């Protein structure tokens, strides 16, 4: 029987399909959807609020059964006006709209702490951070964990040590001059894409990683193992995040009344070649 009661579709919105973090997330979404006989409709919102509301509206018109929104630009307003008003089950990942009823919780405090501990253990005391100037909640928490650990180690770190740039390869690349101007011995890039762009920029200026400057990323995307030097990073279990988000959403679609569920997922440090001791 090919005719189903519902179309068994979920909409998935991510900020940037070009970032392997989100293709890995989608891999998890697809695996879990397939198992439950759902089909995901996937869109990249390109960090664009208008495009994002457009896709949201269109997905709702097409009567998707639920939505996973991993997009940084969604506003609380869009959530109220589009999602809540239409009574559609949804799950938010990594953004500002306030927690959804069901949640995938990643320990960003710990991620930031692990990043700082790693650099401190290598003897770094002049450390810079690259991140967006309007960070989502998870990034704010990540930075807070990082800062906390540096402070506990007696290392001076202020807002002046944070260079702002979009969370992309180009953003990281364009942050190079501002980073170099600070003369840090180590940089914590808030995600791997930023780290990769920055490493390119440093290379063009004749700076060696990690000999002149250590660079630590965050996410642990698959590229990390293939670039030179291999990128040290904080691992997020992103495929599992995609699977679990889908599981929770489909459970919610089947049972609107159950209480909110939270899945906690851990992070850990993957030391590779881009971080090393201070000379
Ligand atoms: O690379 C994408 C980044 O944005 C990740 O660190 C993720 O946590 C998201 O917020």
Automatic annotation (TrEMBL):
Report the domain of life of the source organism: Bacteria
Q: Which UniProt keywords apply?
A: DNA-binding, Repressor, Transcription, Transcription regulation
The UniProt record lists the keyword S-adenosyl-L-methionine: no
Which residues does the annotated region (Disordered) include?
261-279
Q: What is this protein called?
A: LacI family transcriptional regulator
């Amino acid at each position: 029987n090919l005719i189903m009661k519902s179309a068994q579709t979920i909409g998935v919105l991510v900020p940037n399909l070009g970032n392997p973090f989100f293709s890995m997330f989608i891999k998890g979404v697809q695996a879990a959807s397939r198992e439950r006989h759902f089909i995901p409709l996937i869109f990249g919102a390109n960090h664009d609020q208008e495009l994002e509301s457009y896709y949201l509206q269109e997905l709702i018109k097409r009567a998707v059964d639920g939505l996973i929104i991993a997009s940084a630009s969604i506003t609380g307003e869009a959530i109220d006006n589009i999602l809540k008003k239409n009574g559609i089950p949804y799950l938010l990942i990594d953004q500002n709209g306030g927690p959804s009823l069901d949640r995938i919780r990643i320990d960003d405090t710990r991620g930031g702490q692990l990043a700082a501990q790693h650099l401190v253990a290598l003897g770094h005391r002049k450390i810079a951070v690259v991140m967006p100037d309007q960070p989502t909640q998870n990034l704010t928490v990540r930075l807070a964990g990082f800062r906390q650990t540096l402070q506990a180690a007696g290392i001076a770190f202020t807002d002046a040590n944070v260079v702002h740039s979009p969370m992309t390869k180009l953003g990281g690349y364009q942050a190079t001059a501002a980073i170099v101007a600070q003369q840090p011995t180590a940089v914590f890039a808030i995600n791997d894409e930023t780290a990769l762009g920055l490493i390119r920029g440093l290379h063009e200026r004749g700076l060696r990683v990690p000999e002149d400057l250590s660079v630590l990323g965050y996410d642990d995307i698959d590229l990390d193992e293939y670039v030179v030097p291999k990128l040290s990073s904080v691992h997020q279990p992103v495929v599992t995040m995609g699977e679990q988000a889908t599981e929770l959403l489909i459970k919610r679609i089947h049972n609107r009344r159950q209480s909110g569920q939270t899945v906690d997922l851990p992070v850990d440090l993957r030391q590779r070649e881009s971080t090393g001791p201070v000379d």
